[in-house]
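2024-03-11 09:14:02 DEBUG pipeline.ingest accepted 1 chain
2024-03-11 09:14:02 DEBUG pipeline.ingest length=214
2024-03-11 09:14:03 DEBUG pipeline.predict start
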Amino acid sequence: MRAPRSVVVTAVLAVLVTVGALIGVASLRSRDEGGPALQMAAPAVPVTTAEECGSGPCRVLASQTVDGGTVELLADDQGANGQFRAGGVVVQTTITRLGARLDAGSLSCVTASVSACLVTGPLSGGRVGQLMIDRAGTWRSVDKPYFSDAGVLTLNSVSGSGAPEVVVVQNSPVQARVYALDGSSVGCTRHYTYLSQLRGWPNVRLEASDLRAC
């Protein structure tokens, strides 16, 4: 007996949805030459009185003052299930879902015309970072984290735009890539033989004159 047309259509749609979900999971593992990768959104949620990170209580790993307010990085005792807290907003960390673990050195912030913070942690022999941006007093997470196989991710003002940029240091080839807060490429350094040849290494502090087209 031939199945009714409506049943066949429903079955085909179900297969397409399943395949689409599998492709989405696979895309989380991709990396795009050290730039924004691992697409994943981090919605902001209101602060609750019961501060829990995963199945246990949160502890404050680091805090900084940005735009006259305090931002904090919280996590459980293992450095997993992280939260970025600023004022009345909490943003869940996506990099901990990927396997990174947070510590006291995982938070760095820059106050500028558009302020930003990087939440970073070790992953796969390098370092992965999640960018948080303050726009009109509201903090949001950028949905594409950054990965450095050299383990160096920083926020620096390189181009002189008035806003910080994300500097991603790569080990193969040795090079630094610079991205604006919107994820667009600002430029790259030339290829070097050694990481120590990067300006300011190990605290990389690039200047506009160091950059060229990627």
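2024-03-11 09:14:41 DEBUG pipeline.report The longest helix spans residues 5-27.
2024-03-11 09:14:41 DEBUG pipeline.predict end
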